[in-house]
Amino acid sequence: MNLIGLTSEYRRCRNHIACALLLVIVHLICYSTVFSQTDSSVGTQIIQSVSLRSIENAMNRRNSLESKPLPFTMFRDFSQIIGFVVDSTSQDIVLLATKQTGLPTLHPDDFIVGYNNVFIDSNPPYCSLDPDPVDINEMSQITQGAKESGISDVEIVSEWMFRRLKQEWGTQKVVIEGVPKNSRFACKMVEVDYHMKKISLGITEMDSITSYIDRVAESGVEKYIKTGVTESPISLTRFWFHIELPPEEGGTGQYRFPTFSEAEGIVLIDQCPIVLLTEQQLLYAKNKLGNSRSSDRPAQEFADEFSNRFASVSRIHSGYAELENYFRLIAMLRAMKFKKCYEKANWQGEPSFTKYRFTENETLADTVTGLVNLRKHQTEVHRNQQHFEIFVCPVVCGGVDMNFPITDSQFSENRKEDLVALKQLILTARRADSTGVWSVPVPDSLLRRVLP
User: Fold this and answer.
1) Range scoring the smallest mean pLDDT among 31-40, 97-106, 164-173, 286-295
2) Residue 406: which of 251, 272, 250, 263 has the closest Cα?
3) What is the CB neighbour count within 10 angstroms for residue 252?
4) Helix (H) or strand (E) holding 43
5) Nearest 10 degrees: CA dihedral of 426, 430, 435, 437?
6) How far is CA 161 from CA 130, 134, 234, 299, in A?
7) Angle at which helices 133-148 and 154-168 cross, to 10°
8) If you write DSSP's letter for every residue of 393-412 in order, what string do you get?
9) Is cis: bond before 273, omega within 30 of 0?
10) Which helix (H) or strand (E) holds 106?
């Protein structure tokens, strides 16, 4: 071939190469555009997926004698647990959660504690701050002493009773069941419960929530204006966090919660409402405390308002968001156990995390300081042309109770087609069986249909 022929051949090759490069560049640009739109556009949200098999493998690789802590990245962006997928092809179960801006993510220690509770421990997670019955008996004596003193000056009597109550209302016993006492899970339950009790007694102010102690004072004034009768300034009420109860158990829930949607190996949490429940307490016999049959309207109003504001409170104090995720974690794991998901995933046996070593070594005290506060309320009673002043010193107890059943009636297949589509998205996004953590962009329209 002569020089001219070589030159022409070279030009043709160069043109082909240029065209090929142009096609590759155009393809990459198009791919990048599609990826960008899927990952960050307004029309999608990210579902975070974590392989339960990868958690087991990570534990086994770290130490055969004593499991070391899981890396924090395992549950990165696990802000709100929403359910799980059974991946029978990979013999795996995939845990699912959404990322919520401003909310904390699930701590690995908390996942292990929750898992061990559902699959090993028979007692549900529970905490309570219990008063000493001797202190309750002393409260009655303080009230009786004030009546017998003959002192008519309300200011003097109220200050005397408040001082005595602070002296006698000592520590409250910390009771933990279902989870290790010095676990992060247990400490967080107690922390949130104690914070709520400070709000109830007006020690900690919370916008949009009227404290229980203020409601008691206002109720006392209303009763005196209507009847001329005053109530004891000291009372004891129990508040505790729980899933909303159905009507047959004294609750206001339309269903037995939590509720789930399911279809062909995917289960999502529909509703898992966390509420504050209340009961008035009485000293029935010497040093014996029990529930009162009489209603406590101020306590019920406070509990209802706190329940309705739970989501907004969670944005201010992250501990409440973590507590809600604990409830959702236990609900998800109980649904897994109830549906026998290990069998459906062809998983031989169940993973054991009993040797897990916590990343955070917590120390939970045996007691906490009992909370006491005083409220005074003044008003003019026109009926008798007199000035009336009331003072109240209510005290509270209670805790967190995650005792709730899972039954067939709590599962629905109404969203079957959409759930199957979501499951396919999640499993398709998994690059390989060994992939332990991956993010899945999901269209808003689909997510709204599967998550009420």
Assistant:
1) 31-40
2) 272
3) 11
4) none
5) -40
6) 22, 17, 9, 22
7) 160
8) --EEEEEEE------GGGEE
9) no
10) none
Which tokens hold the place of 134?
């001797």
* Cβ atoms of 264 and 422 closer than 8 Å: no
In which region does residue 91 sit, left (phi positive, over 0), alpha (psi from -120 to 50) or beta (all else)? left
CA distance 317 to 323: 11
- Contact between 290 and 166 under an 8 Å Cβ cutoff? The reply is no
Dihedral class, residue 244 (left if φ above 0, else alpha if ψ from -120 to 50, else beta): beta
**What pLDDT is attached to residue 326?**
98
DSSP one-letter string for 285-307: ETTEEEE-SS--HHHHHHHHHHH
* Residue 37 binned pLDDT confidence (cut-offs 50, 70, 90): very low
Report in angstroms the alpha-carbon separations of 89 from 25, 82, 337, 347, 406. 36, 22, 20, 11, 27
Choose among 35, 113, 120: nearest CA to 364.
113
**H-state helical runs in 120-211:** 133-148, 154-168, 184-200
Residue 282, beta-bridge partner list: 290
Q: Place 24 in a pLDDT band, splitting at 50, 70 and 90.
A: very low
pLDDT digits (tens, 9 = 90+) for 120-157: 988 999 999 988 877 777 776 776 666 666 655 666 77
Question: In this structure, what token pair is assigned to residue 260?
Answer: 């789930």
Distance CA 303, CA 263 (A): 36
Of 335, 311, 309, the closest CA to residue 323 belongs to 311
**Residue whose C-alpha is closest to residue 258's, from 276, 242, 279:** 242
pTM assigned to the model = 0.84
Nearest to 273 by CA among 303, 322, 305, 307: 307
Tell me, what amino acid is at 361? N
Residues 396, 157: contact at Cβ < 8 Å?
no
The answer to whether 368 and 171 have CB atoms below 8 angstroms apart is yes
What does the pLDDT look like over 235-271, one tens digit per residue? Answer: 789 999 999 988 777 666 667 899 999 999 999 999 9
The alpha carbon of 360 is separated from its chain's Cα centroid by a whole number of angstroms, namely: 20
Question: Which amino acid, 97?
Answer: A
72 secondary structure, DSSP code: G
Tell me the three state secondary structure of residue 10. Answer: helix
* Distance (Å) of CA 61 to CA 51, 54, 65, 352: 15, 10, 10, 14
CA 286 to chain centre: 37
